[in-house]
Structure formats: structure tokens, C-alpha cells
Here is the input.
Amino acid sequence: MAGPMKMRATLGQGYTDVRVLMTHPMETGQRKDQDGKLVPVHFIQSVTVKMNGRTVLECQASQGVSRNPVFSFRVKGGSKGDRIEVSWLDNLGETNSTEAAIA
Amino acid sequence: MNSIRRALTAVLVFGLVKPLAALAAWNKEAFSAKTPADALKTFGIGNATPSKDLSIDAPQIAENGAVVPIEISSAIPGTTALLVVVDKNPFPLIARFDFKEGALPYVKVNLKMGETSDVRVLAEAGGKHYVATKEVKVTIGGCGG
Here is the structure.
């Protein structure tokens, strides 16, 4: 169920721009399927961003974030080759993570 | 002997549990709140001061409420957290971002809006709270189907 993630970390001026895409349905629990039944709520609850193994950002999210969420974050400093890791956990306990080096 | 062991175990358990509890757990109460005030109360946010140092970049008119791009950032020194609230959504609290040492108080994200509403961004800095508001008009809602 946990689909692929894509991430890009690029150097800006004095910061690193981290752009990450997560594949996730982000069901609100209010949408009905073709048979008129409610689709159960299913969404990413928390996102963690790490740089070289150290947590720099923690996010708690609700079903109000769009489907297949795209987040942009900014990390201070950073240099080429530093490792950025992003992981998420949803309300059904599914999880996924991705790692990339700053380009 | 036994009491020493028990004391040691207690120390060990506390040592392990504390860092876990310190991790921001998903605040169920806040995210299931139906009004913005209730959601913010669970984080201990009552009256927030309006601030011009908080910026919200969002479209004035969103054609599709299922994907409303917003870009938020804070120029308030010592900002440790940003919260996004859509006043008229069924569950108004969208997200809370906690910035540790090393992250800039900046986030870009897409959110869903059920109808035209105020989008509120709150910042936490040095125990104080600040707020900025922007209205986004929605022509097609994104919460139903």
C-alpha cells in the first residue's frame, strides 16, 4: 500500500531545500465510493525529517493534507553529500521512508 | 539485593520511556477537534498576537479545494513551531510542524479545503503565540467527492 517516495535536496543560499513527495491516498473518511459506502479514513499522521541522522523537523498532520502529499522544508546550512532522510507513519501503522544526498 | 535491582530497573525504564514521550506524539485530541478554538486549546494556545512577520502565500481563489498550495514561513526570532488551521474544514487543524535546531521555519504543502474559509497560520516562539490569517475562496470543495 505504501507507494514510492521521491525526494530532492538542493542547496540554496545558506539553506538546503528539501522537496519530498509521498504516495498516499490521504482519505478523509468523508468520501463515498461508487456503492455509496464511506471510504475509511486513512492518512499520514506524522512526518520526520533527519539530516545526517539528527532529527531537524517533526510534523503532525491530519486528513486535511492533499492526496499524494508534497512537502517542502528548509534545513539550515548543509553541504553536498549530506544525508537527508524523511519518514512517515499513517493512522493504520503503515510507514515508509526515503533517503537522499544533498545535490 | 532485590530492592537494588528494582531501583535499577526503574531507572532503566524511565530512561527509556522519557525520550520516547519527548518525541512529539500525534495529538489525537487536537486533530479530532471540530472547531479551531478547541484544536488550538489542546496545544495551550489561547490568544495569539497578530503578526506581520508571519507570511502565508496562498491563492486568493482556489479552483480545486482538493489541492490548495500554501507556503508559510516565519521571520519571528526563535520560532519553534508552525500550525496550519483551516477554519471551516470539518477538522480544522491541518498540521503542526516542530522545528528543531537546524531547520528553518518554512513549509510548503498542499491542503484540502471544503469551502471558502480563512486559513490561519500560528507560530510558537519563546512560549508566545502569533497568528496570521488569509482568506482563500474555493470554487469546488475538496472534502466530499
Summary: DSSP finds three helices and nine strands in chain B.
